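Practice problem: Porin family protein
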Amino acid sequence: MQIKQVDWSETFLVICLRVVADLEEATVQRVFLICIAAGLLSGPALASDLPVKAPIYKAPIAAPLYNWGGFYVGANFGGGWSNGSLNIPGNNLYGGLTEFVGGVQAGYNFQAGHFLFGVEGEFDGAGFGHPVFPAPTLAFVDQHWIGTVAGRVGLVDDRWLVFAKLGGGWVNSSATLNLPGAAWNGTSTNTGWLAGAGIEYGFKSHWTVKLEYDYLGLSNWSSPTVPSVALNRDLQMVKAGINYKFESGLPAVAEAPKHSHEPSDDEDLQKKSQNPIADLVSVPFQSNTNFNTGPFNRTQEVLNIQPVVPMHLNDDWNVISRTIIPLVSQPSPFFDSSTNGIGDITQSLFVSPVHPGPLIWGVGPVFTVPSANDPILGTGKFLFGPTAVLVVTPPHWVIGVLLNNQWSVGGNPLRPPVNAFLAQPFANYNMAHGWYLNTSPIITADWLAASGERWTVPVGGGIGRVFRVGDQPINASIQAYYNVIRPIGAPAWSLRTTVALLFPVN
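Answer key — structure tokens:
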């Protein structure tokens, strides 16, 4: 009888794999790791007439956790508001700041399985000077920059991170008083404690997106005048951000790009680009030009930057993040001039099934942060409400509607409340070579306005095309609309042009 030397570790692994084949996936993972450890420790052995090789059963192995560890840098933007008071004797017309905040962050994460510990620093500029009416006779408050340092703790579930943060911050502000016998101006940097929470998602191997809420409790600031005026403040911020990780979050095999430019792929991409909750990363730049706006018939321009990021919740559900960042040129209602800046930022989150039936749908929350850098560019209120989208895709068509309603739930108490409705029905007829015809009017209602001033209802449409510049897919369109129903002073005609960069999810 011939005695053969075999690799007993390999044989042991074969036996383990056959035993666990019918177990649940989570159990398979644990048993498989035990088998690997035992097999590696067993070493070579002598066997009588045992086969040197045996067929290996390909058991399912779960993908490793997303790696959150290491250094990262990024950028953030959003809105902030305070509920402070400027205690001028006999008058308190301040109400607090609402402002755009934006800047950079950097940090380091330590990951231990499903737990994360880290430290993060942020530096943001603030863009809002707030007059205390009747301005400028009473006062003016301005906020320049915000810096924070905080520790982070979180729970990791593959590409998802839910975190809390605790630390401190600094805010640099200036104030001007024009009181009888108490004229004064000064600048101060105040410290405070920071608490926050948020979610983060790794949508690429080196890239993550996040959404967080921060509360910064500041010390009081009193003027050296007689009588003294106390500026009491807190600061709340809602910010979105994007981070670049220096260490890859995915194994090399998962990072391999998939290149496919088959006609069927381009047709699928064309329909996905028209579906607001498709599994497709896109960055649209949408210009809305509204003619003959206001009492001086000026042109209003709103450039919306609208990044859309799908996030994989599990095998059955996705969460689609849709952000709208408006850059506005707003005609004045009182003077023949315009104010330019950033408007209020809106964030929608749609929970949508991965494998829908004929009706594709998504529901979730929508909120708007008071990020405008001038009162004329925003409501001064934090808005919140529900949103939903319904889509069907018969041959050649993408048809659906997007709905939401928002109510004011915070912000400057001196600004009027908000109760606003939006409906955007859309229909796209797709033709050859990426061309399509479409209509997507934005119908709005201000429920708190007078009955005859409540609705804006446009009609119109246009043409677009999905094409490639090199390997980069692009969706471009142009549409014109006429507002058949509109409030007094609202524009009659508008032109919408859109260029969207498309990034198919591998």
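Discussion: The domain at 257-504 is CATH 2.40.160.40 (Porin). Students who identified this feature from the tokens alone can consider the problem solved.
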